[in-house]
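Q: What structure does this chain adopt?
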Amino acid sequence: MGRTARVREERALKSVPHAGHRVRDMTMGGTPRMSHLAKSFAGRRLTIILAIILPWLLHAKLAVVFGAKSGSAGDTTQDQREHQQYLLRYRFKPGDQVRTKVVHQASVRTTIEGTSQTAKTISVSVKNWKIVDVDTEGKITFEHAVEFVDMKNDVTGRETVSYDSRDDSDPPAGFEDVVNRVGIPLTRVVMDATGKIHQREELAAGSTAATQLVLPLPEEKIAVGSAWTFPDDVVVQLRSGTSRKIKCRQRFKLISVENEIAKISIATQILTPIRDYPEIEAQLVQRESEGIIQFDLRAGRVIAQQIDLDRRVTGYPNAKSSMHYRTRFRETLLPTPPRTAQRRQSE
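A:
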């Protein structure tokens, strides 16, 4: 082979990307390391359901969709869609009301030295965001409330307990906190169009700011396959009487965009090593998310989400015990609010 031919061959070989480079470019990385189970169920779980969103989150998961479909989507080639970038932003007007139906099912099976007990809870509620103001800088002020809640709790060997805030005036034991938090503003939030919280005020007595109400959106335009994260650290209480801060984050990824509806995956990543600490694992499970969120790009809001978890913890509350925690959280956008007034805050 002559010198000229050898030079051409060497140039051709250099122009071929190394296989390892392709793998690194295509891999998103960051497989979530999930925690596992929950503690006991009844009263604490009911309060969490009332404050949950989003939909975070949220992280909120339809049949009803705001806005018209994009007419140009069908004319876009697959290659163009893969490289197209999208700007995700919340879009509200003063006076808007965003109502969603939330269905939350959960089951905790606890086994201690061969004896098992199962607690099951199902709740159906309607969440209402009332848009109070949108200022000249685009900051959105809204009030979060729960219009009603219908709940049922089953525990092995005990009588079923149920409560519907629309019909029952006297809640059964364990549900007293629920009746005081229905039909009134619970939280007032000021956020920008990306969902970044600038101010949060708990309006109801006994409220805490632990629950993430808003799906955080990326600051820049993103393409399908892009991911972003949001810190979500948790402080857990230990039996020793001390507490420990666990570093966590929510990882979001844009899976697809069809007809102006963005499909976003969500997964909790626990960054602090906890595998040998079942006491901590049992507490963290209630803060985990793993599922799909649908976001309407044109209307600028979450329209649906579904979160499913199936976790096990062994060695808690003692070495011969285990817990199996399963839950499904579904949130669905509803039509415009009814004309009937909610219960007055003064009641």
